[in-house]
TrEMBL record:
GO terms for molecular function: single-stranded DNA binding. Residues 167-292 form the Polyvalent protein metallopeptidase domain. This is Zincin-like metallopeptidase domain-containing protein. Pfam families: ArdcN, MPTase-PolyVal. It comes from the Bacteria. InterPro entries: Antirestriction_ArdC (IPR017113), ArdC_N (IPR013610), MPTase-PolyVal (IPR041459). It comes from Roseomonas acroporae. Residues 15-143 form the N-terminal domain.
Length: 319
């Protein structure tokens, strides 16, 4: 318990924005140096989909920038599981963090709105300011299930790939976007409110097709009347690079939700340098990008049959 308090206190003293950003930047740089452009949100070398991180004690999924931070941590350490918890939480469920294990930073949000502090979710400070509120980020430390003794991860059911493909197809059809197939380039055309995708047969497999479709559908959510996402005020001349990062992260969140293995896209090489420039120049940039990506994924989930129109996902309290 003393160690847990020390870890949490150390996280609060440090600049959590910089700590998390540095971890993510290092993971992106590692993929670029390896030459395969495999980012922390992509499938592992074994082709296994990136699992959405969850908290071992609460069973709640992490969201927003915490998903990305924990993917980066797992990617760097080679952890196969996406189960995490604080030192104290592991003790409370009868497990013990092994001596010498390195903790990973995540974020706990508090919102100040003139009526005192209350817990809030993984939204960026820019969104909170737009509603007359201010969000404060507090860092704390978690450990992966691979770093503890006395814990057996639960066996989770895995749908056969054919069923996951059917589910992904139904997911995107339910959104009702106008999609045309043809040509060699995937893109969203704002002026026509149109998603263009190469023919299905042009993709390596069905998973690659739906991962690309997810990326373009996230761009599609930027339109007014959907998420209304305009990054020019926040990022200025770097808005295009930031929007591409939002689409990439949003697609990764959706692929994790749908059990699909996101793979590097051919155009990653041209985008990685611009993403790194944005993240290195603004330690809060990845927080905003992840929040926007999470909002886009939530918006699409809310429009699935039985989800309830306009509903919002439960706020993330860093699980």
């Amino acid at each position: 318990m003393a160690r847990d308090r020390a870890n949490e206190a150390g996280g609060e003293r440090a600049d959590v924005y910089q700590r998390v950003t540095d971890r993510i930047v290092a993971a992106i740089e590692a993929g670029a140096k390896a030459g395969d452009w495999r980012m922390p949100w992509h499938a592992g070398a074994d082709g296994r989909p990136a699992a959405a991180p969850v908290n071992a004690a609460t069973g709640k999924p992490y969201r927003g920038v915490n998903v990305l931070a924990l993917w980066a941590a797992a990617h760097a350490a080679g952890h196969a599981t996406g189960i995490w918890a604080t030192y104290r939480q592991w003790q409370e469920i009868g497990a013990q963090v092994r001596k010498g294990e390195q903790a990973s930073p995540v974020v706990f949000w508090r919102v100040l709105d003139g009526r005192g502090a209350e817990e809030a979710g993984d939204e960026g400070e820019d969104e909170a300011a737009g509603r007359g509120r201010r969000l404060l980020a507090r860092g704390y430390s978690v450990f992966n299930a691979a770093q503890v003794e006395g814990y057996e991860p639960p066996a989770l059911p895995v749908l056969p790939e054919a069923e996951r493909i059917v589910r992904a197809d139904a997911f995107f059809v339910a959104l009702g976007a106008r999609v045309e197939h043809g040509g060699a380039r995937a893109c969203y055309v704002p002026g026509q409110d149109l998603i263009r995708l190469p023919p299905f047969a042009a993709f390596r497999d069905a998973v690659a097709y739906y991962a690309t479709s997810a990326h373009e559908h996230v761009h599609w959510t930027a339109a007014p009347g959907r998420c209304g996402r305009d990054l020019t005020g926040r990022f200025g001349s770097e808005a295009y690079a930031a929007e591409e990062l939002v689409a990439e992260l949003g697609a990764a969140f959706l692929c994790a939700d749908l059990g699909l293995a996101a793979e590097p896209r051919p155009d990653h090489a041209q985008y990685v340098a611009s993403w790194l420039a944005v993240l290195r120049g603004d330690k809060r940039a990845v927080f905003t990008a992840a929040a926007k990506a999470q909002a886009a994924a939530d918006w699409m989930h809310a429009r699935q049959p039985g989800a309830g129109q306009g509903s919002e996902a439960a706020p993330d309290l860093a699980a």
